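Aim 2 progress update. The chain analyzed this quarter is reproduced below.
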Amino acid sequence: MKFNKVVIFGVGLIGGSFALALRRANAVGEVVGFGRSEATLEQAMQLGIIDRIGRDASVEVAKADLVMLATPVGQMAELMARIAPCLGAHTLVTDGGSTKSEVVAAAYANLGDKVAQFVPAHPIAGAEQSGAGAAHADLYSGKKVVLTPLPENSSDSVNRVRHAWELCGALVSELTAQQHDEVFAAVSHLPHLLSFALVHDLAQRDNRDQLLSFAASGFRDFTRIAASNPEMWRDICLANRVALMSELQSYTAELNTLHTALENNDAEKLEEIFSLAREVRSVWTPQ
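Predicted structure tokens:
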């Protein structure tokens, strides 16, 4: 399967890597890019991510085989409203958003009778870097992509979007939007929240320079994701706030348990917690 024309909104890490991976697979004829920054779009052209900078979304999406929404999730509702009246009868739309329930709700609210053409997706392959310069063709190789199909999606539409991601080298699975958001609140959104919180705490201290001068690999590994895009993670946290608040409540209870163990000089409880954590972490293999 080859996509004659792909239109990408957001040509940074996620959208740019999607385009480069399809190019490497010889699976796309033309890639047209849209974005908020002319400089980023020019850079995307220089890097071979896109063939043209889009000027009129209505014209470009009308004849596209596939439209990729690779913007922060907070921008997707407005984008959907813009492109809905112009989508071609056979144009499919997918996205790279890290939350799904709110994106799906935006699709129902803004795509109208074109909602069946939207197949939601989430590539589990982000990085703390952002922008067109961070994009690379290998980003999705061997990485998971989760589709959260809508009841209105035809099997052919889902299969076409699945195949696009597989051409990028991804391992594709499916969840409901609610399942997706519950899972990723626990294993992605909460860790980012905690990482940002730790660095923010230290950043406000009078002796932060001294503290950071002694920080080593443990701090580096725990806080790497705090270098991620603030706007993107603001939108993700707000979009998945219900599931995230539940996970934060559970984590707060865990911290309280540790606080009590320290307060009571309870070595046995600390070792019990650390041992189970070590056991589970030791056998887990990231993908």
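The longest strand covers residues 3-9. The beta strands are 3-9, 28-34, 52-53, 66-69, 92-95, 118-119, 121-123, 144-147, 171-174. These observations will guide the mutagenesis experiments scheduled for the next reporting period.
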